[in-house]
Amino acid sequence: MDILKKIEMYRQDEEKLKWEGTFREYLEIVKEQPWVAQSAHSRVYNMIKDAGIENDKSKKRYSFFNSQLFGLEEALERLVEEYFHPAAKRLDVRKRILLLMGPVSGGKSTLVTMLKRGLEAYSHTDRGAIYAIKGCPMHEDPLHMIPHHLRKDFYDEYGIRIEGNLSPLNMMRLEQEYGGRIEDVIVERIFFSEDKRTGIGTFSPSDPKSQDIADLTGSIDFSTIAEYGSESDPRAYRFDGELNKANRGMMEFQEMLKCDEKFLWHLLSLTQEGNFKAGRFALISADELIVAHTNETEYRSFISNKKNEALHSRIIVMPIPYNLKVSEEEKIYDKMIRESDVNDVHIAPHTLRVAAMFTILTRLKDPKKGDIDLIKKMRLYDGESVEGYNRADVEELKKEHQDEGMSGIDPRYVINRISSTIIRKEVKTINALDVLRSLKEGLDQHPSITAETRERYLNYISIARKEYDDIAKKEVQKAFVYSYEESAKTLMDNYLDNVEAYCNKAKMRDQLTGEEINPDEKLMRSIEEQIGISENAKKAFREEILIRISAYARKGKRFDYNSHDRLREAIQKKLFADLKDVVKITTSTKTPDETQLKKINNVVARLIDEHGYNSTSANELLRYVGSLLNR
Ligand SMILES: Nc1ncnc2c1ncn2[C@@H]1O[C@H](COP(=O)(O)OP(=O)(O)OP(=O)(O)O)[C@@H](O)[C@H]1O
Ligand SMILES: [Mg+2]
User: Fold this and answer.
1) What is the predicted pLDDT for the residue at 279?
2) Which atom of ligand 1 is least distant from the CA of 72?
3) Pairing between strand 289-294 and 97-101?
4) 106 lines ligand 1 (CB under 6 A)
5) Structural contact between residues 206 and 200, judged by C-beta atoms closer than 8 angstroms
6) Are 290 and 249 in contact (CB under 8 A)?
7) Nearest ligand to the C-alpha of residue 320?
8) Which ligand is the nearest neighbour of the Cα of 294?
9) What gap in Å lies between CA 541 and CA 524, rounded to an integer?
10) Would the CB of 332 count as within 6 Å of ligand 1?
11) In angstroms, rounded to a whole number, what is the distance separating the alpha carbons of residues 602 and 409?
């Protein structure tokens, strides 16, 4: 469909949603759909909730954030459960400014932007619909017109609690335009839009000397004072500050902690009492979520200042740490590259993963408990199984360091290194080695790391490199087998037949001659030795596998090649051991003969068709693995 058509359809959709009517008619809507009168905090919470919640082992995962934020499930769960949810229920936290605290480029702005764009979209849906007094610059809640002495009756009839006073401007309009007849006041449906300054605002402090509080609270319009006669006439006031415009929705406060105190005090009374002071008027009620963000250093210096004590107790700090899972980090890079100008470059498989390994290692803290190393910890965090550890151990590990994820390498840095690799290499293909090299060079130029940290990071680069060597070897070896899965399965079936006969002290039948034969001890041992199972331990290992198979059978599940991690590893290694020489000779020969050439071409083709390489990256991989095997 062409773009103009789409724009027109969008306009039509919006037109259809529009509604305008009297306050009397609005009350009917309120009766049928009471949620249209919910508070700003409640609307934000319901927006998040309506996007769906997945329950995963007593943990909640909010789908709302899925499309843009990766690996932050725990922090987000905490944010929703400890702030948005109680705030929606009018509990006290709603009276505090939400301050997201986390390391640079950890996704804070992304999170705030998601909330803003989310609210814009949500206000177009039935569940997120919102109404306001027509013509009010602050899109005031129509229910504010209900006089205080009748609010208890209103609650009894509608079950809705009204907070806040009618603003001076609407008070005046009610008298002058409607002769005090509340029921006739025109109400309209509004749609949040940051561009149109409806319900979504952003405030960023500029030069403290020149910045005016008017940017937040609006100001007197001197050109109209003459017309209205006095400064205290609300019609001579422009309610166009960020706090005014964000009423009913949310305001992002950028660099809040760098801001002048007087700005903060306004915010405090707004969050605390639900109103703020503007011009010469009575307090103006506002209902909005205020979100700010900061990093740890800035926050610490803020709270260490005695002057800020009162502010401190009115802020709720929510940590937004870095993601600590390799596979989620990969998704972050993938997203950032897709959004960038270099999105047409071929990135060889495993490149982002290897970069992510390095990054995650820089963020992890050394485990305190004795025998587990950083790589195992990295694997466990990512949900991989590591022999000898279970889920409970992972939870233990997470508890060891409360501040894990607050430091380390940020995703933007990695993306910058990847971009500079792409630009320098000129060919439109990059691989893991290119990126590791570039990360390493970058460390030398990195302004803010100490020599000691650099040493540590360099070590992580070599760890990531070793991991890559393993991955690369496996990849090539797999591609050398005509059908890897098939071969692995055949070998495993063969092994299991032998194990079964061995454990049952039974004979096997030779497939060709039909003769009875003993289980093939040599075959079984050649597989078991791959994962270090000794002669003494072989019996226990074989029995354990049979037990596992029968447990599977009882549950009606099929035991296959992936059901037993160690057995899979053993099979894999055995297959590769048999292949090693062929791979070594074929990949490293400078003058391949005809069969070798054919083999190489087949492998390259398989890498391209089945594993996501292009011809440049496939050939680079082969050359690299050749050199590795010949070391
Ligand atoms: N956990 C994450 N999931 C998805 N993307 C992320 C994540 N962390 C960072 N990013 C990406 O990294 C980039 C920087 O993130 P963002 O600007 O939101 O960070 P920030 O915390 O606001 O940083 P700063 O402190 O520099 O303002 C963005 O492109 C963002 O999408
Ligand atoms: Mg930011």
Assistant:
1) 67
2) 1
3) parallel
4) yes
5) no
6) no
7) 1
8) 1
9) 11
10) yes
11) 40
Give the pLDDT confidence score for residue 118 in this predicted structure.
97
461 by Cβ neighbours in 10 Å (0-12 / 13-18 / 19+) ranks as buried
Give residue 404's pLDDT: 94
The model carries a pTM of: 0.86
> Residues in the chain with pLDDT < 50?
none
- pLDDT at residue 308, as a whole number: 80
Residue closest to 464 by CA, chosen among 440, 436, 492:
436
Nearest CA to ligand 1 atom 29: 336
pLDDT of residue 204: 85
593: tokens are 């003969």
pLDDT of residue 75: 95
For residues 299 and 294, what is the distance between their CA atoms, to the nearest angstrom? 6
Q: Using CA atoms, how far apart are residues 62 and 113, in angstroms rounded to an integer?
A: 16
Residue 211: predicted pLDDT = 72
Nearest ligand to the CA of 408 is: 1
Q: Which two tokens stand for residue 49?
A: 């909730």
Q: What's the confidence (pLDDT) of residue 428?
A: 83
Instruction: Find how far residue 522's CA is from the centre of its chain.
Output: 50
Under DSSP, the state recorded for 89 is T
Q: Does 104 sit in the ligand 1 pocket, CB within 6 Å?
A: yes
Residues with CB under 5 A from ligand 2 (ion): 109
The residue whose C-alpha atom lies closest to atom 7 belonging to ligand 1 is: 107
For residue 2, the model assigns a pLDDT of 87
pLDDT digits (tens, 9 = 90+) for 542-600: 999 999 999 999 988 888 877 888 898 899 888 888 777 777 777 777 777 888 888 88
Contacts of 324 (CB under 8 A, 6+ apart): 71, 360, 363, 364, 381, 404, 405
483 to 325, 477, 478, 486, 564: CA distances (angstroms): 31, 11, 8, 5, 21
Q: Where are the beta strands (DSSP E) in 456-548?
A: 508-509, 516-517
Paired strand residues for 285: 275
